[in-house]
Amino acid sequence: MSEVHRLAASHSKVRNRSRWHPWLRALLAGPCALALTALILSVMPFWMPKGAGGVDHIAFPLFFMPAIWGIIFFYALLDRNLGRVAITMTVIAAIHAIALSRMFAG
């Protein structure tokens, strides 16, 4: 294989990867960010204090939901490394899924 063919093959891999980047980024910033926000919101009432009125653990997650979604959305859009975004979102989701399963288990 000549050097030209090797360079062409390496460029085609870069093109294929770059073609998928916008779709992967849209997937991470769209449905994955919404699912992670819902998961975080479902766990928040269990660790938030109830407050004097007894509704803070319900009100604060609803109040902070746009901020949580915005942080996840813009992080997925603005970080250059998609692998780091995916790993970070997966770790956060795993932590919250474990916490949620423990809450329901007892």
Note down, in words, how this protein is organized.
- By secondary structure, this protein is an all-alpha fold.
- Helices cover 87% and strands 0% of the residues.
- Helix 1 runs antiparallel to helix 2 (56-78) and helix 1 packs parallel to helix 3.
- The longest helix has 45 residues, at 3-47.
What does the secondary structure layout of this molecule look like, with pairings?
Blueprint: H1 3-47, H2 56-78, H3 82-105
Helix pairs in contact: 1-2, 1-3
Shape: elongated
| Main pleated sheet | none
User: Distance between termini?
Assistant: 62 Å
Q: Residue ranges: pLDDT <50 for 5 or more in a row?
A: none
SS-based structural class?
Answer: mainly alpha
In total, the number of strands is 0
Approximate helicity band: over 70%
Question: Mean of residue pLDDT?
Answer: 87
Instruction: Report the radius of gyration as a whole number of Å.
Output: 20 Å
Spell out the helices and strands N to C: HHH
Total number of helices: 3
Strand content: under 5%
Give me a quick take on this structure:
The protein is mainly alpha-helical and 106 residues long.
Structural features:
single chain; 106 residues; mainly alpha; 3 helices; elongated
